[in-house]
Amino acid sequence: MNIIVHEESKQFHLCNDYISYVMYVQPNGELGQLYFGKKIHDREDFSHLVNCCLMAVTPYYDESTFFSLEKNRQEYPSFGTGDFGTPAFKIIDQNGSGVSCFKYVTYSISSVKKKLPGLPATYADEGEALSLEIELKDDVNDMQLFLTYSIFKDYPVITRSARFVNGGAEEAVLDKALSLCLDLPDSDYEWIQFSGAWARERNVITKKLDKGITAVESRRGHSGANENPFVIIKRPNTDETNGEAMGFSLLYSGNFIMQAESDADGKLRILSGIHPDTFSWILKSGESFVTPESVITWSDKGLNGLSQTIHSLYNNHLVRGKWKNSERPILLNNWEATYMDFTEESILKIASKAKEAGAELFVLDDGWFGARDDDSKGLGDWVENPDKLPEGIKGLAEKVEAMGLKFGFWIEPEMVNPDSDLYRTHPDWAFSIPGRNRTLSRHQMVLDYSREEVVNYIHDMLYRILKDSKVSYIKWDMNRSITECFSRELSGREQGMVYHKYILGVYSLYERLMSEFPDILFESCASGGGRFDAGMLYYAPQAWCSDNTDGEDRIFIQYGTSYGYPISSMGAHVSAVPNQQTGRTVPITMRGDVAMFGAFGYELDLNHISEEEFKIVQSQIRFVKEHRKLLQYGTLYRLRSPFEADQAAWMVVSQDKKEAILAVYTMRAVINKLPGYLKLQGLDPDAEYKCNGKKYYGDELMQMGIPMNQECISGYCINNDGSSAAIVFKAE
Ligand code: DGJ
Fold first, then answer.
1. Is the CB of 544 within 6 Å of ligand 1?
2. Residues 540, 323 contacting (CB under 8 angstroms)
3. How far is it, in rounded angstroms, from Cα 30 to Cα 397?
């Protein structure tokens, strides 16, 4: 890993064993992009890579250089001086002008990867990453811009963020401040986005990049189930195993945009950051603004290679504290078992059966506080309902702990029902605009987390419960998108700051609770997978994937999620059948075989299943306990996509390649057709793997594979009911 600065040619080359990232100071002083991709040799001067040809209509900087912003690839472009593509930022000066020109001043290199104040970011110990900060200045308004780039020693990854400092005497308005602009020389890529909706999150959608703009975005106030702040571009011939791909993740949980723009010259501009439509930040003299971090991942080993890098990066350099690289407790959550209709007695019955099955953690979901007997009331009143919990969370937690289970509970701290004591006391704490209709969703409103006093109040209520109860886990839910985003505390001119201040408020509450209760495992949730983003993983190392717990649908959801997020982060539970969302009956074996590739758990009353099924549950839990490290932290290979076939398959391989677990799922059995072979990946070709009493060499499993018909699959595994199989391979 190195950051090479060529002072003479004013060029910067960040490189490690995998990648190179080269940029330079252009003739007008702004920063330009020269190269990003597989590692290349360094040289004193890369300026031959500038590809510029001026035509009659091309705007140029001045007559002495004939340098053109339109033709050159930029690092962090402004608008209005010759680059007609989408700009990375926009500053409105006092005179109303939106034109900027940030010229190179100096740089600094550091072996410390600095934290981003109030924001999530990847971290690194000394020797694991190097950071380059480039300082630029606009001489007209005295604004400063600091662009920070970090390169990790062991990952084909670059992280970026930008910081604006208003060094002028006048106030300025930052109308747009993205985290990333990457200009690439050609557009011959396919774009993969992970779109969906509530209960069908993160479908894999691939399209050829064409001229113009391709984008995904959220204006919901949270990252959302509909789009995800993670996209991939790949060469058309790249598949799961071979070929070049780049991943772009934004470590942010609020409104975002991820965009690709292919221009007339065929250049491609990738942008990502806070959504400019709902953002406008007032920067007073002396104040600064830091953008969220953007993570660029590169792979020449296909999409599996790309995902494996991301998984390892997040597990080792994003998730913090006790739960970093820790096996996740097998939990039972009572939501689909009882909804809000429970008593302490009925809860303890469910917990006791969970313990008998081998679970390790019991989670009490929604309905334990205030007047919360249904979703129309009580949100915001974080005081136990004595009719349901006579001895409060403290008493219940003690009883559950006495059974030998850990205890956790559900909160939705950002919300309030109008029918609640909190709202009756502080109606101005919920977002709404004077004189306008307040839009409801699930009978609730969103608390104004841009206000410190609101965050403090909720903190104190939760702290009161947590400080003397035995709580090991918290599920932090968020069940509606933001509308009428207006803070009563801010002036009219400041309302463009509310969305971002809101998410900063959410992060600050997380940070506070995490430092006060460092052992608690947080699981984030937003009506299922509505806030499954990398920013959240900095605080909550796992996220509830979806409210759709149907065993078959979950294959699609978890498959799509796996492109950008590690298995350890995917909350995945076995629920009752017929499934409460889809009405489908999927065998308990298949429900287990899917959920075990995640932060595993159950979401049903185990008292209500047959004895035979209960035995299967016990054996599933034994299996997960035995193989948990491999299931949650093994190297993941996606082998067959449910989006493209009637069968799906993935596998995990241990770091030493001595152990692997293959999972095969048949969603639709096709009659009278040979289903072909499934080639395994990531094994040691020379190792002999034991599997169900037989032995196979790694090379034959990878070169020829396994015939995918049911009889053949049965030969490899002990449990195979025709719809799914989890097969263990173990080398001596
Ligand atoms: C939505 C979540 O996704 C569910 O799992 C459950 O916690 C409910 N909210 C509770 O209201």
1. yes
2. no
3. 59
| 234-263 tens-digit pLDDT | 999 999 999 999 999 999 999 999 999 999
Ligand 1 centroid, distance to 475 Cα (angstroms): 9
> 678: part of which helix (H) or strand (E)?
strand 677-678
According to the model, what pLDDT value does residue 207 have? 97
Contact between 270 and 294 under an 8 Å Cβ cutoff? The reply is no
Atom of ligand 1 at shortest distance to CA of 528? 3
Q: Is the CB of 337 under 6 A from ligand 1?
A: no
Residue 479 Cβ < 6 Å to ligand 1: yes
Let me know: does 557 contact 585? Beta carbons within 8 Å.
Answer: no
471 alpha carbon – ligand 1 mean position (Å) = 19
DSSP letters, 231-254, are: EEEE-TT--SSSB-EEEEEEE-SS
Is position 477 annotated as part of the catalytic site? yes
Q: Which residues pair with 24 in a beta bridge?
A: 11, 32
pLDDT band, very low/low/confident/very high, at 571 (cuts 50, 70, 90) = very high
pLDDT the model gives residue 676: 86
What is the tens place of the pLDDT at every residue in 271-285? 999 999 999 999 999
Pocket lining: 525 vs ligand 1, CB cutoff 6 Å: yes
- Structure-token pair, residue 520: 């608690």
Assessment of whether the complete model's pTM goes beyond 0.90: yes
Residue 581 Cβ < 6 Å to ligand 1: no
Question: Alpha-carbon distance 340 to 361, whole Å?
Answer: 19
Query: Among 677, 676, 627, which residue's Cα sits nearest to residue 654?
Result: 627
Q: Inform me whether the pLDDT recorded for 551 exceeds 70.
A: yes
* Ligand 1 pocket mutation pick from 481, 525, 550 by most atoms within 8 angstroms of CB: 525
d(CA 528, ligand 1 centre) in Å:
7
Burial of 491 (0-12, 13-18, 19+ CB in 10 A): exposed
User: Of 477, 553, 593, 605, which is the active-site residue?
Assistant: 477
Q: Is 175 a catalytic residue?
A: no
Residue 720: pLDDT band with limits 50, 70, 90: low
pLDDT tens digits along 115-144: 999 999 999 999 999 999 999 999 999 999
The pLDDT of 146-166, averaged and rounded, is 98
Q: How far is the CA of 107 from the centre of ligand 1 (A)?
A: 48
Cα four-point dihedral sign 424, 464, 507, 635: negative
Whole-number pLDDT of residue 718? 60
Identify whether the C-beta of residue 266 lies closer than 8 Å to the C-beta of residue 283.
no
Return the pLDDT at 566. Answer: 98
- Distance, CA 546 to ligand 1 centroid (Å)? 9
Q: How far is CA 170 from CA 98, 276, 286, in A?
A: 15, 22, 9
The DSSP bridge pattern shows strands 288-290 and 157-166 to be antiparallel
Over 70: is that where the pLDDT of 721 sits?
no
218 lines ligand 1 (CB under 6 A): no
Q: Is the CB of 198 under 6 A from ligand 1?
A: no
Q: Which of 699, 304, 326 is nearest to 522 (CA)?
A: 326
Q: Which two tokens stand for residue 664?
A: 């095969």
**What does the DSSP assignment read for 78-123?**
-SSSS--S--SEEEE-TTS------EEEEEEEESS-PPPTTS----
Ligand 1 centre and the CA of 199: distance in Å?
A: 12
- Residue 547 near ligand 1, beta carbon < 6 Å: yes
Annotated catalytic residue, options 138, 448, 533, 547 = 547
Residue-wise over 608-617: b if at least 16 C-beta within 10 A, else e?
Answer: ebeeeebebb
